Amino acid sequence: MAFDHTLYQRRYGASFAQTGQVLNDASGYGVAVVEAPAAAGAPIWKAIGVHHLTPDENRGQHNAFIDILDENGQPLRDPNLRAGWSWEGRQPGEDAPLQPLDKRLNEPAGNVPLFKGALLEVWISDPAAPSDHVTRLSTDHPDEPTPDGDIFNSIGHHSYYVVFQRTPARGGGGGGGGESTLERTLLAEGELHQVIQFNPDAALQKRIFADGFVPNSPEFALTFEGVPYICQRAEHMGTGEVRVYHVIVGDWGNVQFVSRPR
For residues 74 and 228, which has the higher predicted lDDT (pLDDT)? Predict the structure, then answer.
């Protein structure tokens, strides 16, 4: 099945208009949305939806496809707008040129290539409006065969679709919720430096928390003797015991661990 970005575009736009909530089906892949700090009198680019492409939609690609909507939820093309992007551990001199958002309406406005081993983030570069950041976009996830056995999502070949919508300027100096500009900035920066995203509904973290441990690594993929695993390191805050929890891909109800006393 070819990727029809308009289905997600309409879904995210309608949901945001009704609830103001972000839809992110890629959270299980570690993807997070970091809200832009409030800027009095300026509109904000909100990341209203993130989708991890299915194998049939992706067909071996490795991109973050990006769309932009105006205040009314309509597709937008503006030659003055660009997609900004970067990655964790980026060094001075490593270039990340802004990407145009000027493609035809029958395809996403633009895209950023993802590369193996990197955790990327994307946002809208607009001098007139701050932007949310969509972070921890990665291609380092296990193979996902189709029912026919085709491998269109594999390590190094995963893609995402991200929709940003320009929202009206917020009133008042400190923004909503009674938070000062400093508080909002600190919270946003904290999100940008987050290493682990807690997801108690994930198979590994559910078992880790149930055992009284705390995860202290992101989930990582491991293939041993041809068997693909998802793994995560955890530690007991009282005893210092270290465990590595692991589960065979697809056998999510059978989480195991190995331990090392401290």
Answer: 74
Q: What pTM did the predictor assign?
A: 0.67
Regarding whether 146 and 24 lie in a shared domain, the answer is yes
114 and 208 fall within a common domain: no
**Residue 140 lies in domain:** 5-192
User: Does the pLDDT value for residue 95 go beyond 60?
Assistant: yes
For Cα atoms 245, 246, 250, give the angle at the middle one, nearest 5 degrees: 145
pLDDT at 195: 61
Three-state secondary structure along the chain? CCCCHHHHHHHHHHHHHHHCCCEECCHHHCCEEECCCCCCCCCEEEEEEEEECCHHHHCCCCEEEEEEECCCCCECCCCCCEEEEEECCCCCCCCCCCEECCCCCCCCCEEEECCCCCCEEEEEECCCCCECEEEEECCCCCCEECCCCCEEEECCECCEEEEEEEECCCCCCCCHHHCCHHHHHHHHHHHHCCCCCCCCCCHHHHHHHHCCCEECCCCEEEEECCEEEEEEEEECCCCCCEEEEEEECCCCCCCEEEEECC
Asked if 128 and 213 sit in the same domain, the reply is no
